[in-house]
Structures are given as C-alpha cells and as structure tokens.
Protein: beta-N-acetylhexosaminidase
Amino acid sequence: MSLEEKVGQMMMVGFYGSEPNADIARLIQEAHAGGVILFAYSQNVVNPVQTAHLTNGLQSLAQETRLGVPLLISTDQEGGVVARLTTGATEWAGNMALGATRKTAYAYQAAKMTGEELRAVGINMNLAPDLDVNVNPANPVIGVRSYGEAPQLVADMGAAAIHGYQENVIATGKHFPGHGDTNVDSHLGLPVINKSREDLEKVELVPFKRAIAEGIDAVMTAHIHVPALDDTPDLPATLSRPILTGLLRQELGYQGLIITDSMTMAGVANYFGGVPKAAVKAVQAGADIILLTPALTTDEQIEVYQAVLEAARKGEIPAEQIDQSVLRILKVKAKYGLFEHRFVDPADIPEHVATEKHLRTSMKIARSSITLVKNENNLLPLRLQPDQKLGIISQFSLIDRVRPYHAKTTEIYHNQVNPSDADIQAAVEMAKTQDVLLVGTYNATANPQQVKLVKALQELHKPMVVIAFRNPYDIQAFPDVPAYLAAYGFRSVSLQAAVETVLGDNQPKGRLPVTIPGLYPYGHGLRYGGKHTDAKSEQLPANQMDAGSSKEDQLQEQDSSK
Structure:
C-alpha cells in the first residue's frame, strides 16, 4: 500500500445523502477513505432496503479503487435513545432499561439481534455498547445510554452485549476512559473529570478492562480531560498519548482498534487549532481511526486526511505506527469476512430485520424494565370506571396505546422539552375536567418548564401518575407526586410497556440501576400486590445477574416463544 492509501484507511468519513453521490465518491477515491459512518440526520439511514442499497453502492466505490479494500461501515445503534436505523427495524429499550432488568441474557439477545439487523443492511461496525458508568445524575450526554451506576453491572451487561454484537458486527466500547461522571456535554465543551487514579480504577475503568478481557474489537475515545491520567492543560483523552498508548495499549494490554469520537465535537474541535491539527494529534496519541462526520464538508474532511498524510510524510507520525494501525484495520476487516462478503442482498432483509422473534424479544425486555418507583395508596395499577375521564399530558403521544383500555381519554401532546406558559395553561385547563391524570416527562430536572407543568398539575389535587421517558431522576423535581415510573426511553416498546404497566397488563419488575439522590436507593423497585424489592432486599451484588444461572445460561439466546 502507498502511504496515501494507508492514511486513507485510517479515515472514517461522513456525507449527506440516501444514495452514493459525488461527495462520498471523492472521499473514497481521493482520500482513500477506509470507513464511512452513517447517520439518520444526514439521510444515510432511512429504512432497511434503502440502507442496503446505499451500503452496496459504497462498497462498489471502494471495490473500484486500486486495491479494492472493503469499507468499514459504521453507525450508532446503541438502542434506546441513540439509534439510527428505526423505521422498519426493531426498536430496543436501551441500556439503562437493560440494566433495570438485571438480566445479562437480555443484553446479549438485544445485541445479537441488533447486530444481525445491521449486518443484513450492510453495516458491519456498531459504535456500541456504551460502557460509561453513569454515577453523575446531572450528566447531560450519557444518562440512560449507560447500563447504570454500578461498575460491575455495567461491566457484566457490556460483556454480554459485546458477545452478542460480535457474532455479526464489530462492537465498539465507548467512551474511554469513561464519560459517566461529567456534567458537561462534550459535543458542546470539554468536560473535566477530577478523580484520582485510584477512583478511576474502581469505577470508570472497570467495564473497559472487562471488555478488553472479553475480546472487544474496537474502543472509542472520549473528549474529556482527566488530569489524573494526563495533566496537560485542556487536553482531551482523545489527544493524549499517555491515555491512549500508555494506559489503554501498554497498561491494559489492548490490541484492537482505537477510534476517536467525532472530531467535529466541541470537546476536541475547539482545541489545538481546529480539526486537522487535532486529528494529527489524535493519531500521534495512538488512535487508529479518525472519525469525521457530515458536520465537515467534503473539502474539510479531505483537509483532515491531508494533514495526517503530511505529518506522516514528515515523520511526525512514525511509519511503523501507521503500519500498525493499518494492519489492525485490515485484520478486523478480514475477521468479519468483508473481503469475501462486502455486499448484502436486500431480498434477504425480511429474514433478518424486524422479524417476529426480534419484535417479541424487544417487547419482552421493555416490559421487564419498567420500574415502579413510587405508588402512594396503591394508586397503580389504575382501575378506572367506564365513566371516569383520563387526561394525558405527555412529551410523547400515548393516547392510541391507552384508548384500547379506556375510551374516555383526552390528550395534550407537546413535542418540546420546555413547554411554553401557554402550553402549560392549556394542559391545566384540560386537566381540570379530568378525573385522573397521566403525565409523561423527559429529563425534567434539566428542563424547568416541565417541572413548572407538573407542579401546576399537582395543584389540582387529582390522582396523578408520572412516567419518566428518559433519565429516571425526574422525581427529584417533584418528589411528592403520588405515583412514578421509570421507562428509561421513548421508543415504541418503552411507551407500550409503560402504558401496559400503568393499566395493569404488565407487572413492574425493573429495579433502579442508579440512585435517585436523597429519595430512592440503587436496586429499589416496587411491585403490584404489596410486593416490593428495594436496595435492602436486593440479595445479589450487581455482578450476579441471574440467580442460579451459569454464565453460559446467561449468555445463551433464549427462544422467547417458549
């Protein structure tokens, strides 16, 4: 391979379009790009058949180059709130919902089935699982993307997911060395984690050490500053040689791919003179793949490639290091059979995507995740009389799911995280005419108008149920609501499972995978019929997922029809 081709293999690029076009052709042909990342917002991922045609077209462009090396084609299909392929594919409840079930078998099944669906449409690399330990309730970017706050829970669920994904696609653990204890979004700024090395060893590094031991093929870096690991001022981990090479490679013995988080995020792009210089620094630190997105134009992405190429030509990046990175990339492409099987047949999609078995499994997991946090006077399950009026005020529409249970239902659906004062007043006026209220929230602790809405509804002194459709911490803002459930997400299966639970068709089985500070401990979860499980009665430590089952049993895919 020429140096130009080698450096190109280290570039994962992005573009706008639902089919191959001149922009992506330039990146593959002129910049020799070895990888492409797909997003829904850039119209790359619209539905499974379109995505399959797109990935086939991208692989054809790569096949036409001098060496014809197949592409890594990636996306962020974490499940839950972060998923790119949703229309026509199976929707999953997400990591914190999985953590609430405490079942590693579910993490394995969800990952295996997700990987099967991705591979069927030509995506061969998933930027998942998220291995961050969400110990900070104010974390604005991770939250329900994490399995929970217990390092061993995250490690065990993550390990099961890795095995599931890697039956079909490359798994990518993120965000090293751990993004769970931040209160700044690295898309917008540079978070700082001021912890000792000892504390990092006890929390953040636990899931990554486990992932390495389980043979994960890729690790994504975090745009966070960790002084205990590298005290260079304002230096993100992505650009730190002591962190990527010293810690991840040498101390932890990791031999797989290191891929950066998006180099267009403010946590890295705003430092060291822009993306091209930051990309050079990331490679010097030990990154194998530079991740770019359509936030950069095609010309700007080519500039990044040229900056790394020029640094390599000048010897600022050792030739041996470039060779090692490219060898890792080629080996993983060979491991997943891309040289022989780069193309997919769209006609095969119905056999692998949104199958009855996948949909059934997804629904089963979502039902098992719903966590009943508070149930004053056994308000739940709701036992509505035919003439009682139920009012729904929610971030996400629930009425079509509720009406089969109860005809006299009215809904105000406000699709914005901070409803206006006029929206709040309209909701209150509607609620005045109702007998029982069902309220959906979405990260209310970070959105004051949602809190204002809930408190205004509380002043009506009506029976009221609140469902948190993202982070479970919302009850901190209104601790005296009569009934409160955590659904951990807003995908269709979570909405359905939450409604079924409220109306008595599903027994709540989930246990909090995080602490709700000052209110409810890790492991807390109520049941209907007077039964309950709280932190004191959680007999097993977080690393013992399924009582009485072996690791093989836990990871074994179970046919949900049995």
